[in-house]
């Protein structure tokens, strides 16, 4: 700016108009050495120089001897977070600009960095161009701030520089007289608020303040003592001019950070003669803070409240219901078969489906209700005013109805259903956690009952789940405490008139409940991730017992045992079995592992490969419960098994050869594939005779012997069965 009649004064380039590319020192603080080597090349510009270090302590050591224009600061460092360095800069009143670079997903990291003075926040992974823009913008901002500080120092010495700085400032700068009216205001007011400078002269400052903040500013500026005698800083909203001719829509106000500095009278007077004020537009920062706050309490995919906000609203609703002795309902909604969409069509389609479900669910709820997404395919609903359970049931039915029409995805239509559990306050719980858990339990009961429905929480369900949790807790450590046992049931060859095999059957000798069968605790072990340790114990015990019986002279005895389907999910299941057989010196063919048809159909390729490896190692593999699946013949082509076991459901109602086409077919299949055949569940003499007639020689069941401990089972090996052991 040039003052008429005077020579322009701009000072030196470095003092007044610093170029961010001249003499710019940048410090890179990151524990990734490769990144410290790369960033100087990516951000290289004329005049820029770079230093680097890998920890907060090393950065402070450098800063104690050197000033920098910019610090590129990693959030997560070996000795502390980057927030510690921001605190050090603040405590030492340093002026370095800081760009925080972080891979943290939590919003708290960004909030903490910005509140501690970081100029920008870049989330990993980032594009190079994004980082370059952030650096350019921050250096530009820093250079402006440095220029403003340099010009402010010259303000006391030069009227010309004072005028240049004030009237070119990006901030709104003004002075007020003792009555709080404008007697100077810089040109920035035109761009910032849309007012002409002349129109505001001699007008009170509070005329620009929005009604919400006016009383606060009146008390500050127009107190009985007049203009305040101490500096202050406040945030407030200033009114923007409305231009009816322009027809442009814009915000009614802007948010500014106002710094007021009293202008004291001469000769040490204590009464302020006026006020010097600087108002900086922080609207963008406030909007950014609002966005960050929204992201902290809302799901980014559906824009619904998240778990934290839902819990806050539920706790508030409970407090209100307690005061007025009212009631409320909590719903837990889980999308059925959602994994199928992700696995089949991809996660993008899954996200589209979740957004569609969220929209339909929202449409069924009342204005005061809350729909939240907890994560994945789980939603919760808060119904704060429920006069009776039927009200919640009505909404549940509406939810099922509104989801009935198919959702249109890019790969075709998909009909989504949900399982919905309902809990009522105060009947089913007194706090947010209890109610949500109760609704969750009810939802899982719907899942187990066939999905696509709703159910109210039943206290008996909670007892069942408590018992299940107690059972799981007891099961942990059962192996170490020696509570697990193996019982053995003989497999009898009618032709050879002796025991040819033993099936190892797992039992749990519970210290309170007594002997517990595998059907009661194996599913719990599978869900809790305990089945691997239990299967290794079963394998070890069965192999040790077979080795003992072989040493006693029963060289041809075969040991049969079941492994869980989860065991076949493990990559080392083959090695686990072969190592155990080798360690006990057993012929591999004398150990037979039983698998089910359902296991084969769930992961045909994976299971078939492991079965092939087991067979190649010489072990026997039997299909347990043969004939109960849907694709037995097709899978026999793929699985090199050695034995078929006829399921007890086919044996139970045997009356004669002519009435048993299924068993006849199974025996034909066994002969056609060259497989051994075992019938299980044999309980009556007529079943024995019918199976013998149909061509089945090896049998097991209560007719011969019930499962028993090894000591009793050893006696069967020395006996010749005559109808029963």
From TrEMBL:
**Residue limits of the Response regulatory domain?**
25-139
Q: Where is the PAS domain?
A: 158-221
Report domain GGDEF positions: 326-459
What protein is this chain from? PAS domain S-box-containing protein/diguanylate cyclase (GGDEF)-like protein
Entry keyword annotation includes Ligase: no
Annotated GO biological process:
cellular response to nitric oxide; phosphorelay signal transduction system; regulation of DNA-templated transcription
Residues forming the EAL domain are 468-721
Pfam families under this entry? EAL (PF00563), GGDEF (PF00990), PAS (PF00989), Response_reg (PF00072)
Q: Which catalysed reactions does the entry list for this protein?
A: 3',3'-c-di-GMP + H2O = 5'-phosphoguanylyl(3'->5')guanosine + H(+)
User: What keywords does the record list, in alphabetical order?
Assistant: Phosphoprotein
**Superkingdom in the source lineage:** Bacteria
Cite the PAC domain residue spans from the record: 232-294
Task: List, alphabetically, the SMART domains matched.
Answer: EAL (SM00052), GGDEF (SM00267), PAS (SM00091), REC (SM00448)
| Species for this entry | Azoarcus indigens
Positions bearing 4-aspartylphosphate:
74
Q: Name one GO molecular function term.
A: cyclic-guanylate-specific phosphodiesterase activity
